[in-house]
Amino acid sequence: MSSTIQEDHPGVADAAAAREAFAAWVEAAEEGRVFGQVRVKAVEPGIYSLRHVEDAGNSDLRLHEDPREAREISKTTEGGEYRPLKSSPNLRRGWELRVSGAVDLVVAMNYLYPAGVVHWHAHREGRLEVTSYRENAARQSGIYKRVQRLSDEGVQDTARACCEDAVCLKQTLWDVDEETPLVMDRGEGDIPCPEPCSVFVSLARRVRLFEREKKRDLDAIGLSPSEKEDLAALVEAAATGHVDFAREAEFEKPLNERRMRYRRLTLAPKLRPEAQPVSSA
Ligand code: SF4
Q1: What is the distance between the terminal CA atoms of the chain, rounded to a whole angstrom?
Q2: Residue 146 falls within a domain, yes or no?
Q3: With 60 as the cut, is the pLDDT of residue 9 above it?
Q4: Of the residues 132, 158, 200, which should be mutated to test ligand 1's pocket, given the most ligand atoms within 8 Å of the CB?
Q5: For residue 116, what pLDDT is reported?
Q6: How far is the CA of 201 from the centre of ligand 1 (A)?
């Protein structure tokens, strides 16, 4: 994806300014700051402690002093699954990173939240360029080209399924297009999201397949083949007590959290039309 910062002189100077601003922001709060799921705090001038926000009072943490170790920490969930989206609220616990200086602080943060600091800084300065869904989709090619035909309603439902705080801690800044804002809870976090990410585009591709199916393949009671596949998987899981959840970006599988969040928005109302719409969070 293209750069998302408007700059006359991009590069090193901007990264340095972001780094210094971030370190100053952290140091200005005695109790530290929360960035995504990380509490980052200056324990003495120029020395920073980073840990999972839920480990704030935990003294039994594994200590790391090399900021590059944040790469391993961010790679897998508590259960050992690969994390394709670093802003998902599934960062593992049990570690502390203690680093010295703003450079190492931002090296660690960049492994935990790639581009998070530079986007945070550009957004605070009003220089973060935001790319709408339609602009992003126009650049897609190959198997992703079909996302260009996703309906506005499909984009809205995909965003609510994919981007709300329950599944992504970034604050969604982009819209469907210039005239069509996203109607959703955009999140409260400090890390801005200026453009649909690859996980979003992958789910959008799946939702476009669902839209095509709805036009061609509905049965007598108005269900599509993939809706029936998902319902059958849920019945099986409930009957056996064995829920084999799909991985985070495996949208082709029924028991995927974001796919199920999409079904909650689009299938549940069809099955129970008299029920009040549920919150998508
Ligand atoms: S597009 Fe959505 S899921 Fe992807 S990073 Fe942005 S807010 Fe998160």
Answers
A1: 28
A2: yes
A3: no
A4: 200
A5: 97
A6: 9
Phi (first) and psi of residue 251, to 5 degrees: -75, -10
| 88 ligand 1 Cβ < 6 A | no
Note whether 114 and 145 are same-domain residues: no
Q: Do 179 and 120 have their domain in common?
A: no
Look at residue 10 and tell me whether its pLDDT is greater than 70: no
Asked if residue 81 lies in contact with residue 67, where contact means CB atoms within 8 angstroms, the answer is no
Residue nearest to atom 2 of ligand 1 (CA): 163
- What DSSP element (H or E) covers 214? helix 198-216
182 lines ligand 1 (CB under 6 A): no
Assigned domain for 6 exists: no
Question: Structural domain tally of the chain?
Answer: 2
Q: Are 95 and 61 in contact (CB under 8 A)?
A: yes
Tell me what the mean pLDDT of segment 179-203 comes to.
Answer: 97
Q: Is the pLDDT of residue 276 over 80?
A: no
* Within-domain flag for 58: yes
Domain that holds residue 228: 133-271
Is 4 within a domain? Answer: no
Number of the ligand 1 atom closest to the C-alpha atom of 167: 3
Residue nearest to atom 6 of ligand 1 (CA): 193
Ligand 1 centroid–CA 93 distance in Å is: 22
Percent of all residues in the chain with a pLDDT value above 90, rounded to a whole number: 85
